[in-house]
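Before relying on records like the one below, remember that each one covers exactly one chain. Contacts with other chains, cofactors or solvent are not represented anywhere in the record.
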Amino acid sequence: MRSNPYPNYLISARLPGMNKILLGLIIIIGGWLVLMLFLKGLAWMGKRGARTAANKALASEKILRITSDASFLGVDFPGPNLPPRTSGVLAVTDERLYFMPWFPRKSLSFPIHYIKEVQLKASYGNFSTKVPFLVFIIKDLKDPYGTIAWMVHDPREWVDAINNLIR
């Protein structure tokens, strides 16, 4: 009987096909990790660029609330052609409500006097979560009112700031 020329810890030496499987798994997992890091970098660049563009557009106004992590949920009136769950910069100034998506760079803007009120709702359209959504009731866009919604951090603080502004 021939002795095994390879030490016992080199299992793949005894199973040559195993080398190909392990190499394939390493390449797939490594490629997936590189792709995720690349996508994370793109999102970071989009977020930073949108925040810069929003600050430039709102430079002459007093910003009351702003976040770079707002998630647009939709509208119930014709107009903004943005898909639901579009992330972007949401800002409320003393003059307007402003939203700049990370991608594509086309902003939504409504004068403050168009906002009838802001409400917190547990659901909007097909979305519902434990975190309440900001739902803006907008005058003059639909008979009698249109709504537009975002998901933000600290929604109660947003409602207080905006309702104090419009009253």
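The longest strand covers residues 63-75.
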